[in-house]
Amino acid sequence: MAITQFPPRSHSQLEEYLTLRSIALDELIRLEGLGDHVGDTTCVNCAETEGLFRCMCCQSNGLSCTGCTLAQHGLLPLHRIERWNGKLFEHTTLKDLGLRVQLGHGGNPCRNVQIGSVMTVFDTSGIHTVHVDYCLCKNVARRWQLLRNRWFPASFDRPRTVFTFAFLDQFHELNLQGKITLYDYYLATSHLTDNMELRKQTPRRPEFHRTMRMWRQLQMLKRAGRAHDPSGIQATRQGQLAIECPACPHPDRNLPLDWESATRDAWLYTLFLAIDANFKLKSKSRGLEDVELDPGWSYFVNDARYKAHLLKHSDQPEINTCRNEHDAILRATTRHTPGYDVSGVALVICARHAFVRGNGAGDLEKGERYCSIDYIVLSALLAFQLRLLVLSYDIACQWSKNLIKRSAEYPAEMQPDTSQTSIKCVVPRWHIEGHDQFCQTRFSFNYTPGVGKTCGEDIESTWSVSNQMTASIREMAPSARREALNDHWSGWNFRKLVKLRSSLLQRLKDACTNSIRQTDIFAQFNTTFRPAVVARWGKMVEDWERDKRGKCPYKETPSALTIHDVQLELAKEEMEASKSGRTSIHRTSASKFLLHGLNLEEKQRALARDCLSQEKMSPKELAEIEQRRNTLLHDIMTWRAIQLAYMPCVATLLASPDSLANADNTSHTSAEQLPLFLPSGIPSEALSTVQVHANNEIRYRLAQAEDGLAGIRRQRRVLHSVYQFKKLNVSGTGNKPNTRIRSVFDKVNKKIAGLAQRYRAACAALLILDPQGTWVGRLRELADGDIRGPGREGSDPRNSYFEPSWIWLVAPAPNTDVDETQEPAFDETMRIEWAKTKARADRWVEELQLVQEEMRRSLQFLAWKADWWCEQATRRGNIPPAVSSGLSAYALKQASFLRALLQDSVDIWLPALSARGLTPSWTTKYSANSGSRSSSEEDGGTSDSEALRDDGDDGYVDYDSD
């Protein structure tokens, strides 16, 4: 986030204000009175009569008489007027002075006047009452006369209330950029008019809401060129009002003529889509009747068809994720909420540029069911013609199963042509951390060829904007709610279009830097291995990329050491010993005795942790603690008898009067504090008498440390997944779901604390039993600050400086028994690192190619769209000349703005490409027209493209700014 740099003299300017504020206050007070007119209130215009009126909107503060005031405001009927009563200025209106607004002649007199009535006019300057007269010369209906005056009538029959275009536009912009609600804007306008609420005002909020719905849709229809289509508005196709992404591939618009026959570069023409669900955008069940203004014409799917589809699949279960461990949270917090018709919204965007897709949104009734997500995704792919499609979804590992089979149940026009199209499903880069190892390799962007540095997480930034509307849209009628969201997504897309110049420029910079850096890193790393090894690894990567059912080159080998593995090995050794005639001195084997001791130690730690919060426990909970203590003490005493058989030296330690385990001290010592005297817990001079058991404990402790470290990493992934889910779907939704999530946080953190204790205890024992062992280089001391990740924390530095905790860098433990026909453990570890390093370099090289292709596509799309608008100018025939003039002017204006945007993009991108030694062939087409916009950018100054990054992401202005 950029830090705002204030001018160096800002503080001195404020200090200067302190010396002048008394005078400034007097100047403000001066304006409340007659000012320069004290002693002379003659009209400043005619200089003949007394001036009693002043306008609060005009530049001049001079006093005018009634006649001059009316003459000056014949075309300014919405200015605010004040009258001097001899003591102070008081409110009055131009209507009270006798002003009448004549429609139909541009302010000129009308010979055929139809006397109208008093009209309530909402404007950015406040709420006004105006006498309106209509024109009968051309037999134009009153409603159209009002519209031609840029006043939008609240009703079309006998309008009494109108809203100026400026008023509607201002609210539209504030609503999109600042999420100002209609209620707040209405009240602000009312307070601007009469802050003391002394004058009677008839409520007009329902009229404002209804008018705003019509205004929004008319603007979307106009901007999509629907006024230019001879077939009319009703011929609007599904999703046609959506603003399209110019950087995505569009056949017949921005792709080469031979794109279908491309082989080596075919991946450059891939469409990337991201899918996600948001459970904050709910809708209350209020039984409101509503009129559908937008039947699937923009971003939401056609509601009637969608609901009919859902009825056919009402018994389909919700989607379950793979083995990621926040599934329980998902099911608990996103179920159908009583009192709500809609539990959330599913959305499809282009994953590279975050444009919301036409027909890419739909309401969710009861969570993320297959039937809902399938319908929305297939709707967003209507008329899809490309050969390669990548779908990013946080539960793609499950959703992708049988996707093609399920799509066969849909109408033919919605079914993807799998004979021509290859579909890959992946999990977004951040969300994949919550999945198991299988998903983290097979569904990873990192290991998928042809995706560049696409992350799939941009959809979260879309939610961050729309979530600000939750309080208002959940109260709306169903259609009004969908229209509001459609409008905001349209605004979002437009801002993305405007900022595409800067976003692609930044991606180019990042790709150039990192493709060189990562390629060099891989080249250096690659030289450290024998060519035969590199060839074998390279073939393994290629084979897996062709068929992911084979051995994965990126898959981390699980630790060869687990408690159960060691237990099995020791049991086999004891079996071999018994076959050779060596019998155990106790019916409980030595390995089981030692394992039982470690289990008792684990129970002691768990009980000690639980006892830390005894002060907050209820009597029932305290009783349960005591019962656990008694049970644990009994188990220790039972185990002690076996211990004395295998470790006779412990008898001396138990007899010591200073020992907590002494019979005299046991009654005063809590069970969790009793020393167990495992081999690692006895004096060093006694170790030689129990060396066999000490060796067994080393093996158990190594497995215990590995288990503990792996468990910490697993639970940290769970914690991050739960946190992200809470942030996106639960925060702000009420106490109950937040409390439920909080309890899960506490539970996971408690598990992590226990695992950390287990790891530290294992390492402490190993330091005693095997201080010079091979484990020393791998297993390090675990500090509290090391328990972090995956990824950077909120307080950590940026990614470029980020250093992960050592717990994520520990190589797998070496196998104790290695099959000589298999790859050695060390070799396999290095192969994994080699493959990951290669994938990282490959993805950055792809990103550099993709960004250049996206620049080319963007320019070609803008040129095509500009030509398209020019073609619209004369499509409609047999229409009034005034309408024809408007159609032509608007189409040509849109074309001119698009060409200006194209030229500005050329001026920014081409010098940046040239400065980095990149000269793709398509640049020659634009080189002659390239300006010098990028000079300041290359010199480190602030170019227009960089300044664009400071704009908001969600405001919405038309290409024209009327």
Topology summary:
Blueprint: H1 10-30, E1 53-55, H2 66-72, E2 81-84, E3 89-92, E4 100-102, E5 113-123, E6 126-135, H3 142-148, E7 151-153, E8 161-164, H4 165-178, H5 182-193, H6 205-223, E9 270-278, E10 283-284, H7 303-312, H8 327-333, E11 340-342, E12 344-350, E13 356-364, H9 370-380, E14 388-393, H10 396-399, H11 403-407, E15 422-426, H12 437-442, H13 458-466, H14 470-473, H15 478-498, H16 500-526, H17 531-546, H18 563-579, H19 590-611, H20 619-646, H21 650-655, H22 663-666, H23 691-730, H24 735-769, H25 825-872, H26 881-915, H27 924-927, H28 935-938, H29 944-947
Parallel strand pairs: 4-6, 5-8, 9-14, 14-15
Antiparallel strand pairs: 1-2, 2-3, 5-6, 7-8, 9-12, 10-11, 12-13
Helix pairs in contact: 6-15, 16-25, 16-26, 18-19, 18-23, 19-20, 19-23, 23-24, 25-26
Overall description:
With 962 residues, this protein is of the alpha/beta class. It folds into 4 domains: 32-233, no CATH class; 241-498, no CATH class; 504-542 and 826-950, no CATH class; 563-808, no CATH class. Helix content is 46%, strand content 9%. It contains 29 helices and 15 strands. The strands form 4 sheets. Strands 4-6-5-8-7 form a 5-stranded mixed beta sheet. A hairpin with a 7-residue loop joins strand 7 and strand 8. Helix 16 packs antiparallel against helix 25 and helix 18 (563-579) packs antiparallel against helix 19 (590-611). The longest helix has 48 residues, at 825-872. The radius of gyration is 37 Å and the shape is elongated. It starts with 9 loop residues before the first helix and ends in a 15-residue tail after the last helix. The model is unreliable at 325-329, 794-801, 816-826 and 934-962 (pLDDT under 50).
